[in-house]
Amino acid sequence: MHFRLCLDLEIPFYSRKEGATMTSEKNAQVGQAREAFQMMYQISQLLNTGLDADTLSICIRLCELGVDPEVLAHVIKEIRKMGDNAAQSKPVNLHP
Length: 96
Known about the structure:
Blueprint: H1 16-46, H2 53-64, H3 69-88
C-alpha cells in the first residue's frame, strides 16, 4: 500500500469558483493524508516500533522516494544498537 503524504499545496490561480473547488479538493486531500498518517502512527505504536511521529514521517517520506523499507528498518536497528552500546560504555576520564 502506498500513501502519498507529502502533498504539494501550491494552488494555481483560478476564478473564485474554480479556486474554491480546488481549495476544497486540496483540503480533502490534506485531511485524508493526515488521517492516513494518524492510522499509520497508531499502528506503529501498537507494534512498539519506538518511532515518534517525526521519525515515522521521515521514514514514510524515504519510502516514498524509493528507499527499501527493509533496508531502512535494518539501518534504524543498527543505529539504535550503536546508541545503546555508546550509552552502556563508560566515558573515558581524560583527567586522571
